[in-house]
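Archive entry. Fields below.
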Amino acid sequence: MNFSRILHNVNYLFSVLLFLMGLYAVTVKPNLIKKLIGLNIMETSVFLFIVSIGMVEGGQAPIVTEGVKTSRMVNPIPQALILTGIVVAVSTTAVALALCIKLHEAYGSLNADEIIERFGS
Amino acid sequence: MNWTLDLLLMIFLVATAAAAIVLRDLLAAAVVFSAYSLMMAMLWTQLRAPDLAITEAAVGAGITTVLFIITIYKTVRKEGK
Amino acid sequence: MRRLLITGALALVGLVLLYGVGKMPPMNTRLAPDKTHVVPRYLEKGEEEAGAKNIITGIILNYRGYDTSGEVTVIFSALCAVIAILDREKKGRSRSGVDASAIQTSVIVKTVVRFSLPVVVLFAVYVILHGEPSPGGGFQGGAVIGASVILFTLVFGLPVSTRRMPPGSRIPLESVNVLGFLAMGFLGVALGVEFLTYLLPGIHGALADTVRSLMLTVIEIGIGVGGGVIFVSIVFTMIREDQYELQQDTA
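PREDICTED_STRUCTURE:
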């Protein structure tokens, strides 16, 4: 493990940390809304990772303006991909929250363990 | 790249994410999640991604937070054990 | 014991990810492998080939237009899924729990919302139409339009909002983003060339630039209006409370 490289890529380090926190919330917390918050944190941590790959020191935004050379721009491809990713994240969150409303109406609680107990009734 | 501002933003990001996971009151967790989205939008601006900053600010603070608060209003408010 | 197992599993995942991070090239280098193959061509020829000064708009609508067709399909099917789970409202006025709050919204909040809402909508239209020369684009403006209508609903109540935007006017607009994108995509097929192209046969020179600009604007407006109405419909469907009153009557 190359420790100096890990400490230099500080954006990636925080992205891994946020991913682990989101994974903890999804697996350990029994409340469904906490699980959804954890899922959103995992998704945004992956977005941070991918956009940080294309970062250039002293770079400019990839918009053609006067006085900005195209060789000094940051990488525009990850940003275009993550734009679609943000749309997909909000779509899945909306559907999952609608399912939470229906589950609460059917089973009376939002705790995953209690819902599994009440499956038969 | 402004190292101190980026580092400060990322420390705030981790702090708000930890608060959103640990809080028992779900409405407080949704509001802190909106603050997390704001920190992320500022980080996109630092990473020279203006399209992503506008999208994250509009979608994270405007749509996702409102959906969470509507769901919390219709279901439980406290995370019961 | 269980906590120890979970912490151990997470630490293992973390170690694997950190090992991968250690193998990646250092950040902020100018000649990293991701920037040397396709990116210089996109940056240098993006403006003349894609017709947009904002290279990201050129990428998502021209170089990678197929991904954007998937994106508009995803947001439309999210709306279909939410309506399939929670039924669409029947005719007449809808009620929501937001109206029956004991604390009335104050005059200050209502006046501020009344003044700032037209400015917000104007800004959203500006962001949609200026997708090419500046940061912005279709989806960003659509999200801002949706957020402004949601703000209006939360302050003034659901019956007022449903009277202004009834389901009859929302249903045709919800599919505008998919239909607009596919219409512009199949325009090439109808004229004999490939799918999702902006170079129509028989049109050259400056007229081709105008046609491409027009098609890009139609797609952006479609995605913007469609996205905004989809978000408004999702929130109206989730906030409505007619079905709960019906359940409590029969239970």
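CURATOR_NOTE: Chain B touches chain C at residues 1, 50-51, 53-55, 58-59, 62-63, 66-67, 70-71, 73-74 (CB under 8 Å).
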